Amino acid sequence: MMAARQTIRWRGELRYDEPMAEHSSWRTGGRVRRFYRPADLDDLCAFLRDLEPQEPLLWLGLGSNLLVRDGGFDGTVIATLGVLNRLEWLDERTLRAGSGATCSKVARLTAQAGLVGVEFLAGIPGTLGGALAMNAGAFGGETWRHVLSVETVTRSGRLQTRLPSDYRIGYRSVQGPSDEWFVAACLGLEPGDAQAAQSRIRALLARRGETQPTREPSCGSTFRNPPGDYAARLIEATGLKGLSVGGACVSEKHANFIINTGAATASDIESLIVQVQEQVEQTQGIRLETEVRIVGDRTT
Question: Which CATH number fits domain 87-211: 3.20.20.80, 3.30.450.20, 3.30.365.10, 3.30.465.10?
Answer without folding.
Answer: 3.30.465.10
